[in-house]
What we know:
This protein is of the alpha/beta class. The chain has 10 helices and 16 strands. The protein has a domain at 55-227 and 289-384: Nucleotidyltransferase, domain 5 (2-Layer Sandwich), CATH 3.30.420.
Amino acid sequence: MDGVPRGVAPVEIWQAGMPQSGDQGGHHVLGGDPVAGIQPAADPGAGSPAEPRVLSPWRGVWKVLLVSVTVLVVLVAGAAATIYGAVNYYLSSVHRIGNPFESIPAVQRPPRAAGLAGKDVTFLVGGLDTRSAVPTTGSSAQTVIRGRTDTLMLVHLLAGGRGAYVVSIPRDSWVPIPGRGDGKVNWAYFFGGPSLAVRTVEALTHVRIDHVAVVDWAGFRAVTDALGGVTINIPVKSYDPANHVIWTAGVHHLDGRQALLYVRDRYGLPGGDFDRELRQQAFLRAVFLELHHQAELSDPLHVNSLVHALTKAVSVDSTLGLTQITHLVPMLRGLNISNIVFATVPYKGTGWAGSQSVVWLNRSLDAGFWHAFEYDTLPAFMQAHSLQQLGASTP
Length: 395
C-alpha cells in the first residue's frame, strides 16, 4: 500500500560489488549507503486532507519523534543541572511555534489531574508530513508549511522521576475535530496548526497537554546521525521488497538514512503494520539507551553538539522556558528503560468512513486507558485488559 512520495523517484539499490547501472535485479545487504539518491519531494501545496490519501513510506518514521523530546529534556535539562548558565543560550536556539494554548478557551480544556499526578508533564509530539524539499521545523526551518501530522504521540513524564509513558495515536484514527466534524486525527494540524491539534487530542483523551514539539523527517535523520547512529539487534533475517534491502539477523549499527529504512519497513515483516509498530518502538528504546549512555559521559563538547543537532531539527511551543526545563530535571534523573512504558491507544481495527480508510478506536476502553495514563496506573490497566506494551522486541 505504501508508495513513493509525490516527486520522489523510485530508488534502485544494488548489492555491494554489483554494477551500479543497468542492474535491475540486485538486492542491497544492509551496509554502506542504502538510500543514496533519495530526495524529499517538493511541497505539493495546500489541499484538503479529505482527498483520497496517498500513503507515504515515511509514515512510520514519526514514531521516532521521541528522539527529539528525549534529546530536549535529557540533554538540555541535563546540561542545565551542570551548566545552568548555558540553558538560556540553548533555549534561545530552539525554533518556536508560538503558544498553541492561548487561543483555546479555558472551559474547553480538561482540568489538571489531582494529587501527585497533577505535577506530571505531558508533551504532544507530532511529525510533519509536509513533503517539503527544505527543513520545515527546527532552527534550520526555511519555510512554514501547515502539513498533516503523520503520527501523534503523547509523552507523559511522571513526577519525581518515577517513569514515563509514550502512547501513539494512529494517524488514521477517526475522531471528532472541534469545529470540523469527524475526521482523521492527523487532519487537525492541517486545519488549525498546533492549537487545533491540542484541542483535538485533549477532547479525545481528556488529558491536559503541557507542551508541544514537532519535527520533520530530515530532523529525525540529523539527530540520529548526531548520536553517531543507533545499535539494533534483529533476531530474524527479513527482506524488504519495497526497497530491495535484506536485513540480516544480528546486531546492526544504523545511521540516519539506514534507520529510515528500518523504521518504515513493513512488507518484509510477517505481521505487517503490527510488526512495524514493534520495530519502531524497539528503535525508540535503543535511542533512549544511547542518549542515556552519552549523557552520562558528561562531555560538554559532545553534549553541545547533540543539543545543536536538536535545535536544528525540532520546534517547540513558546511556553517551554527556563522554569519549565528546570522543573523537568528531577523527572529525568530517575528515568531508565525499565520504567518507560511504550503503547498504542486501544483500537478495534481498520475500516471505512465513506471514502476514507480509517482506524476505529476502542471507545469502550478509551476512558479507562486515558485515566490510567493521566493518573500513573497505565501498566496495571494494560495488564488487566491484556493490552500489549510495545518496544520490548524487534521483529
